[in-house]
Every structure is written in C-alpha cells, then in structure tokens.
Design brief:
Pfam families: EF-hand_5. The protein is mainly alpha-helical. The protein contains six helices and no strands. Among the domains are: about 55-90, no CATH class; about 95-130, no CATH class. It is about 45% helix and about 0% strand.
C-alpha cells in the first residue's frame, strides 16, 4: 500500500514541478521602433516581361564543349582533340610513344618539388603541399533587392 502512496506522491510532485517549470511566461522580445513612413523608399517598378533564361541541360553543355565547329555533330577528331593535347604534353621526346618515365613525369615533378629537403621521402608537411589547388566557386552576381 505504501508503494502506491509513494508513487502517487511522486506523480503529483513531478506534475507540480512541470507546471512550475513550463508554466512560466517568456519575456516578449524587444523590437526596434518602426521607421517613419517617409524614410521607406517605394519599391522599384517591376518589368513588364520576365527575362528569359537559356536553360541548357548538363548533357547539352557537355555536347557543346566537344562540338568545336558548332555544326551539331561531333566528329571523331573533335572527340579525341582534348586527349591528343594531353598526350602531346606527356610525349616529351615527340616520338609518338609514351615511355613510363614520360607518363609518370607529372607525378615525378610534383614529388621532386614537394621534397624540400631532397631526402627522397615526403614528410607529412611536405606531402600536404602536393594537394591540388581548387578554383574558388564564383560568387553570385544576383542583384540586391530586385534592382
């Protein structure tokens, strides 16, 4: 019997504590005074016609990057042109073949540049300098307030 009374008393105490804690009223936030009506600028007039945007899909943009002569057809040469340029940069002796050294030259040069103490090994600090630099994203050139 005493357990029931103790449980009932605990429920009453918890209920009263909840009312006390959650029943208090929060202070109303203090708002700054409203500006006088003559200080508010009238909104700019809206244009009569909405601007039209040229929405290209990702695939259309990708297609346009390869279609250099803009004839809406990608030839084999147009598709391979970026790869030929990359290959020509790697083929340092211009014999039309890539040796392992030619293929690995970019990595070797990056390693040599990062190995500041010329020990043939990279420390953590030296390795951190090999991270590729990313281009920052362009900031939005949106007009403020519809101007």
């Amino acid at each position: 019997m005493w357990r029931i009374l103790a449980g009932g008393g605990a429920v009453l105490l918890l209920g009263m504590a909840g009312v006390f804690l959650f029943g208090s009223r929060a202070a109303a936030p203090v708002l700054p005074p409203a500006p006088p009506p003559d200080a508010i600028a009238p909104p700019a007039p809206l244009p009569s016609k909405a601007p039209e945007a040229n929405e290209k899909t990702r695939e259309q943009k990708r297609f346009d990057r390869y279609d250099k002569d803009r004839d809406d057809i990608i030839t084999r040469d147009e598709l391979l042109a970026p790869r030929r340029k990359a290959y020509a940069k790697l083929d340092t002796d211009h014999d039309g073949r890539l040796s392992f050294e030619e293929w690995a030259i970019a990595t070797s040069e990056r390693f040599a540049h990062a190995d500041a103490d010329k020990s043939g090994k990279l420390t953590r600090a030296e390795f951190a300098t090999t991270r590729r630099k990313t281009k920052p994203k362009p900031k939005c050139v949106c007009s403020e307030g519809g101007e």
